[in-house]
Amino acid sequence: MTSPVVPAVPVVETVNLVKIYQDGGVPVPAVRGVDLRVGPGEFVAVMGPSGSGKSTLVHMIGGLEARTSGEIWLDGQRADTLGESAWALLRRRRIGFVFQFFNLVANMTVADNVELPALLAGASTREARRRREYLLGELGLTARADAAPSQLAGGEQQRVALARALANEPSLLLADEPTGNLDSRNTRDVLRLLGEVHRDGQAVILVTHDARVASLADRVVSLLDGQIVDDGGAGLVRRRPRGSAGDVVELRG
Amino acid sequence: MRLTLLALLAKEPAHGYELKQALEQIFGSAYPSPNIGQIYVTLGRLEKDGLVRAVDVEQSNRPNKKVYYLTAAGREILDTWVDEPSEGPRVRDEFFMKLVLAPMTGIADRMAMINRQRRHYLGLMRDLNELAERTDPDNRVALLLVEGAMLHLQADLDWLERCQEDLS
Fold first, then answer.
1. pLDDT at res. A243
2. Could you give the C-alpha distances from A228 to A77, A224, B19, in angstroms and in order?
């Protein structure tokens, strides 16, 4: 088994990370001792049945949910012990988020939605605008810059959400089922951009049920009952002897 | 292969090599292209069964080529094939047999087997992604075939997840 070369300072490291929800006084463990290291520029997919703790894990990494115990390190800095405002600051500078439901600000234009995170993080208006123009261009959304989110189709909204998440050039992009609501053409566009982000050296942790999406990752982490049960390359460990690619279709047909 | 060739010949008479080219053109790289020997063997059998007939066509500077055309009996077989619903996919999965039987004998660990299989499926999915990228975007037939294979694989992975939840 080839283990990925993890540089000295991972973008993310969790140590024995635990999340236990309380349901009417009954403890419900969602994440049960996860150790995960993700290096700069790595693309990691997280898979597992519903209820296995995938979303809870990435929400904790992004500081959207408090951990019950364990440690979270971002770029070598202990993050879980930070106060609310310090956490928020760190998040704005280093982390981008994409969700299944796009969470765009309804009464702002597409352009303003994309610029907002950069402005919040302290970028100059000029810099925020430059970045916004670049991202909307890359995503084929330039013509939609002045539209309201509600005027866009689902695939376009998701691309806007992705542009927004990338506005700060975060070292880490967290995505929770980003293609969950998209048809196959829009899925392809989102995947293409994720691939580019990845090539630019940003790390991606992506929760997905879509095997097409997961198969593009460098690593697939499988969760079951809040624990990692597998962590490795997608079929890359032992490359199959290749006939014509058409054999794959026949095999599955 | 028999019925595929009958269907092509229902469109127009053709010789063996033309049939091979037609298959390649229609399905693109999404389907393994048949070797020419296999096509000639199949045509020979169809002829023996009276479903196609061959005529020799003279060529200058070359040996005669055999051009095949569909007979009435061939047409009937083809009509029956087209009119019948095709079998659905069946769950007679080799991996599932291994998964259930091997741990009983103590020679394998279920979790490890499932993890290995998942990686293998994801590797196949990656191949399909690459195949889709390489396929001519105008070849709708080839792309649909690839998409069908992807959907089957997704179902296999979903089922694997169910197995992992329930058996381990």
1. 45
2. 23, 6, 51
Q: Has residue B76 got a pLDDT over 80?
A: yes
Answer whether B50 touches A (CB < 8 Å).
no
Residue A212 Cα distances to A179, A187, A209, B59, B64, angstroms: 10, 9, 9, 50, 50
**Interface residue A214 vs chain B (CB under 8 A):** yes
User: What percent of chain B is modeled with pLDDT above 90?
Assistant: 51
pLDDT at A253 over 60: no
ipTM of the predicted structure? 0.80
Any chain B CB within 8 A of the CB of A251? yes
Whether A235 and chain B come into contact, CB under 8 Å, resolves to yes
This prediction has a pTM of 0.82
- Quick check: B120 pLDDT over 80? yes
* Residue B162 burial (CB count, 10 A): 11
CB atoms within 10 A of CB B75: 14
What are the tokens at B99? Answer: 């998964």
Residue B128 has its nearest CB partner, among A210, A230, A248, at: A248
Cβ distance A71 to A78 under 8 Å? yes
Contact A230 B115 (CB under 8 A): yes
Task: Name residues whose C-beta falls within 8 Å of residue B155's C-beta, 6 or more positions apart in sequence.
Answer: none
Q: How far does the CA of residue B116 sit from the closest CA of chain A (Å)?
A: 8
